[in-house]
Amino acid sequence: MGAGTEPDGSSRSDEEWERFLRESVAGAADAPKEPSARARDVAKRLRAEPSRDLEGWRSYTHTRPKQRTGWYVVGLLASLVLLVVALAPGRIVDLFAGDDPDAPPLAAETARPTQVPPTEAAQPPTMDKPFRGSPAASWASGAAGITVPKAGAVGWMSAAEVERALARSREFLVASGLDRGVLRGEHPEKAIALINPHQKDVQDFLKTAFRTPSEKNDPLLLFSRFQPSRTHLVGDVVKTRGRLTYREGERGALQVTADVTFVYPVTRADAGGDEIVRTIVRRELVLSWDDPDKVITEPGTFSIVSYKYDMTNGGCGAPTGYFTPPFGTDRRADEAGTVVDPYDRSAPVGRGESSGDECARATRS
User: Fold this and answer.
1) DSSP secondary structure string, 176-241?
2) Angle 76-87/14-26 helices, nearest 10 degrees?
């Protein structure tokens, strides 16, 4: 916590503020006796409203722990609340964000890692901490885990236009892999609206994939979906880690590559237990923002150049259009197929433009 500032402009050091808070609680004789004009005004209003509910004020302070408004409020309750915020502001923010407060945050990914994440202590996930015991516990939540680079002019686009295209590219990742409705099996309308409607092969794929899913036409190639009658997401947080990069593509187009890992904690839809499985999906998408003078497109849409993904704990049977995480006896400790560390982002995505005919086995999940 930085030094506080008095209404008259003078400053208190960190040590003085900590002593003031401790002595306010203990009732020390040498605690500041003369409240500020604002404090007197607040105290007068509090006396005039003895039945006032302070819960709203406490919640406001907790959700914005860096504000110092409460330092002017006189009273034991104010001192106690401020002391908690002063000692652990990060924990309070983490609790409201739904993250695991025991996991230190990991710096944003700005380049491909050179090594595998370290192994964590063996701790099973819980309903309150579904990422516990995995590298994802320290990852950012939702769109915050997808790093967007600084924009510069490329091909037919100015720096400002590249910035907007990068934002739209991340918007697609959110709409296809983080939208709560899509995760519950709804049609990904917002995501599809960002795809060039004149890209015939992709539009044909989309029409077929949701109607009759198959190895070749599977909506999971682009979208993350769970069947609500079978699987429920645990909590409101999906952990992500990855980044966007860009360069000039064909015919002066802006080519954006997204490489992002999504971690979905899920449990059975029926209330038959608290077993948690983490479905882990790493996607690599290459998107082309084409020059409308050279390619038939619509404003604000991109063409899909390629898509790849790796998936563990998402099901090994025939395509259904949904991830089907294995629970209980369905979990196979010795699945045939490639053995992978789903949290390892140091190597390229290993799967081609289909889900493949083998089921990867996770070394840890």
Assistant:
1) HHT-HHHHTT---HHHHTTB-TT-HHHHHHHHHHHHS--SSS-GGGT---B-TTTEEE-SS--EEE
2) 140
CA distance linking residue 315 with residue 338, whole number of Å: 14
The 8-class DSSP code of residue 121 comes to P
Cα–Cα distance measured from residue 189 to residue 184, given in angstroms and rounded to the nearest whole number: 13
Q: Which three-class secondary structure string do you get for 53-95? A: CCHHHHHHHHHCCCCCHHHHCCCHHHHHHHHHHHHCHHHHHHH
- Please count the residues of the chain: 365
Q: Using an 8 Å Cβ cutoff, are 279 and 312 in contact? A: yes
What is the tens place of the pLDDT at every residue in 121-143? Answer: 778 999 999 999 999 999 999 99
Tell me, what's the pLDDT at 336? Answer: 54
Say what the alpha-carbon torsion angle 75, 91, 173, 185 is, to the nearest 10 degrees.
-90
Structure-token pair, residue 344: 């390892």
Report the alpha-carbon distance of residue 106 to residue 135 in Å, rounded: 10
DSSP-assigned letter for residue 302: B
User: Could you tell me the sign of the dihedral formed by the alpha carbons of 101, 107, 113, 118, in that order?
Assistant: negative
- Phi-psi domain of 222 (left: phi exceeds 0; alpha: psi -120 through 50; beta: other): alpha
| Average confidence (pLDDT) over 48-53 | 40
Question: Which helix or strand (DSSP H or E) is residue 162 part of?
Answer: helix 159-177
Q: What angle do CA 110, 178, 145 make, to 5 degrees?
A: 20
